[in-house]
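sorry to bug you again but im stuck and you know this stuff better than me. theres a chain ive been looking at and ive put its sequence and its fold in token form underneath. id like you to explain what the token line says about the fold, in plain words if possible. anything you notice is useful, everything is just below.
___
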Amino acid sequence: MEPEQTSPAGTGPAPGAVPPFDAELRAALSRAETGPRTPITPGNLAEVQERDAAARPRPTLAELGDGGLFDVAELRAPGAPDGPEVTLLCARPAGAAGPLPVLYYLHGGGMVMGNAASVMPQLLREWALPLGLAVVSVAYRLAPRTRYPGAVEDCYAGLVWLVDHAAELDLDAGRVVIGGRSAGGGLAAALALLLRDRGGPVPIGQLLLCPMLDDRGRTFSSRQMVGTDTWDRTSNATAWQAFLGDRYGSPDLPPYASPARATDLSGLPPAYIDVGSAETFRDEDVAYADAIWRAGGRAELHVWPGAFHGFDSLAPRARITRDAQETRTRWLRRILDTPTEPGAPAPPRTG
């Protein structure tokens, strides 16, 4: 699959011709910015990571419990061969009768930032309570300290262990949705491919929110949104290089590293993909949905007009954010309500 999208000679956009931001989102972005937006580069990556680690919330288990509203536990799963244990944060509505369906969630942050706990409050408020599900957030290893395939193998090992222990955790092994945002969305797409090819547990859906899918940076939108999107071509290239190391730019990179390189997208769980029209990832995400359809699969695609990367986090009360949240919730409810065969395939015992 090649997501490259080019225009015929002479028909490309003039400089500065980019999709306009939604008015509410533009206002929120203006309020949030105190100076010029600085892309992430190899030279400032370590400083950016330090600032993120210091500033990003990392709620405790007690704080995630929200006064007894949720039961929260920190679980430890065996990692990949020669890898460390994988920490999983598991939370569920207190007193909810199980076994509960599971959202197995991979946080964003360009594969170089973020933590498993910071995303939990929103996930619990928006989905765990109204849908009656458990949320499991994965503390995968970050780049460049850990290169590919470290993070992908962490996510895989955690899910295999979780399914294997679902009964004792009062979870429904036959109703697991894998998902994530940005880099986490890319990792979720890679995990779906890896599960298919290794014969691992079968998720019932993949929730891919503005997923980071293509290391090559060749799409039209990646060039169009330079200097405009909150996550642009320079930051994206820096993150991919940190993740891939010497394999960055390799022509034979496997799809588990960069899902947009997959040539076979058949046999995957139904996908929900959304992205902004004014976003670097727009074209690679649209191309991925199209490739799933071409392979005979199921994908629901939403391109939010005038939305930049991370718009819903920056402007949580904007009308378009509320529309996006409601649409994602409807998809999740529909997937969870779809009848499935009881049980789940036994997870493999090999790496």
About this structure: The two ends are 26 Å apart (CA to CA). Confidence is low (pLDDT under 50) at residues 1-15, 341-351.
